Amino acid sequence: MPQGSPRFVHGKILHNAGSGIFYRMEVAIPDRIDFVPGQFAMVSGWPGNDPLLPRPLAIFRSGGTRGKGTVEFVYKVVGRGTALLSGLHAGDPLALTLPLGHGFEFPGEDRSWWLAGGGVGFSSVFPAAAALEGQRADFEIFLGARTRDQLPPGEWIPGGAVPGRVHLCTDDGTAGFFGTVAAALGERIDRRNSAGPNRVGILACGPREMLKAIAELALPLDIRVQVSLESSMACGFGVCWGCVTAIRDGEKSGYRRVCREGPVFDAREVVW
Amino acid sequence: MTQPVMPDLAARVGSVLLKNPVMSASGTFGYGLEFTPFYDISRLGAVIVKGLSLLPTPGNAPGRIVETPAGMLNAIGLQNIGVERFVNEVAPRLDDAGAVYVANIYGRTIEEYEAVARRLSEIPALAAIELNASCPNVKEGGIAFGSSPEGLSGLTRRVRDATGKPLWVKLSPNVSDIGAIARAAEEAGADAVTLINTIVGMAVDPRTRRPKLSNVTGGLSGPAVKPVALRMVWEACKAVKIPVVGIGGIQSASDALEFLLVGAAAVQVGTANFRNPNACVEIVDGIRDFFVREKIFRLDDYRGKLLLRG
Q1: What ipTM goes with this model?
Q2: 3-state class of B296 per DSSP?
Q3: Which pTM was predicted?
């Protein structure tokens, strides 16, 4: 079931600025919203009917008080919708439906967490990092990009100042580990304390191939993996049935909505 | 200051009375309950639920939607929970919500259509059955029946005999003469026709050389189809005496008013719900505001009053 009831609200952009290839946008909304890391919003603001549909953006942060809230997003320009979004300014109106979907689950058990973000996928794992930091939980972050310039700014990483916590990975070796996030996680799995009980959980968001590679590495070792999937969606709240992905259901599988039963799924259930 | 007289928005689709002429279009509103976090769904003229089949249907493989200029293509493939779960789990909750609701149905065979209609007829509060004779995305989704007057007539007669509920027939725009199709439904016993369903379309990726939808073709909806829909609704209104419900690209009260003006008894709002979950109620409010401004007291004083030269 979705966590928390969604609302449709009109907001106003407070700021919307680029940092490298990413944009960070803060929006004033009528009320404070609570969200679970991994949940998202459907966002639109450009005038006219083209593009027609709002864009799904992971909720990066929320704040404010009753009667006066703020919500923050991080996004990358990938198409016309996000290009139009990047051209909006402080004061411009936005329409938002939020919070949506089923987010990451991290019960307060004694467990180490490895968070993996590929590309702009960090935007849904950073809120999880912020929550884990608040719980004083033990966690490490793996961030992957094609090249150095496509990594998020260091100051955005919750708890990123703790030595040894952040592992940068680049496909071209220009920063950190020379290789993919999945490969870096593979090495980290080899180095884990095999004497102790297996108490690691992985939370991952990024390209589907990355998520699949992580699932293939970790699941045979009984490491629990939660993945946040991406999909084209029209509504974001479960009525268009456009965003489905195949999910195992006992012996069979069926199509589940990424926007409602997801975007976070247990990696064991995903039909890759 | 005198208080403005609140206009009477009550609409009538045959024997079905609606508090206003705005309904949700099937396939864009889930089973209705998904909208209860946003507003009280009893405020709508009616809720038309997602197409129901005899058995649960898995739907098409992913790659189900693609955005197009001022519109979208979908090929969902009628994924649904099946009539039994609707009757047992959903209908009681729609009753609790105080909604007026209509079930959209489809079958792979005429016998399946009949069986679904019979089962739904057992729901006392169900206002009507909308026969989907026009889904373009499944081979047996009705378009085989809905694309010729003879096919539609045969299907409509059989379902007509299977249910005592008001029977609305949803028409495909993918035909050469919408008037002839509407007349076929009327002659076969339909209480109303609803149109248009989506227009068959296609999108391909020039780089990967692949269709963007797993089903290759899909149904076009959204503002892009509105002029086509309006023309077809106007033609259908001239062709039949039964009520015509207008559907196709309605995003605003102004769009809805255009359909009412050409003669629609009521309208259904579809794709707009995806962009704005409050679209339907905003359209109700917008029609009321327009009537207040224009000093129109009843829907019937406006409906069908298109002024033509001559």
Answers
A1: 0.93
A2: coil
A3: 0.94
